[in-house]
Amino acid sequence: MPESTSAVHIPHDHGQHIDQVLAKMPPEPEFGKASGVFQQLCDPSRLRILWLLCHCEECVYNLSAAVNMSSPAVSHHLRSLKQSGLLSSRRVGKEVHYRLADTEEARLVHRMIDDIFDMNCPANSIR
């Protein structure tokens, strides 16, 4: 893989200015990071949990009941979502409460989820 876009030889000029696009292409590690975020959305169970956490803050036990899954299974999904940077957590007594992280990536995922499910965030009308 070339170190810079100046080392890339594009065999055909179709007038689409690919050289200008390549000059703005993010570095390869950024694509890996973005891919990791998108991978979180590929599992239907994880997507259901994420949908809930886009709209409220909850503990593992309530999430488990809401999605009809065992607490260890929900914890597994929460760990994955948190490692990807989409969730944050806080300890409340003996429980850990999870919510959507306050990051641009998490806000983008929230908007995508609301758009996909054609809904307005209920949290906006609750607060």
Estimated structural class: mainly alpha
Describe the main β-sheet briefly.
3 strands, antiparallel
Weakly predicted, low-confidence segments: 1-5
Number of strands: 3
Provide the residue-averaged pLDDT. 86
Describe this entry's structure for a reader:
The chain is mainly alpha-helical. The protein is 54% helix and 11% strand. It is built from 7 helices and 3 strands, in the order H-H-H-E-H-H-E-E-H-H. The protein has helices at residues 18-23, 28-39, 44-55, 60-67, 71-83, 104-116, 122-126; strands spanning 58-59, 87-92, 95-100. It has a 3-stranded antiparallel sheet with strand order 1-3-2. It is elongated and about 60 Å long.
Descriptive key words:
127 residues, mainly alpha, three-stranded antiparallel β-sheet, 3 strands, 54% helix, disordered N terminus
In a nutshell, what does this entry contain?
The protein is 54% helix and 11% strand. The protein contains seven helices and three strands.
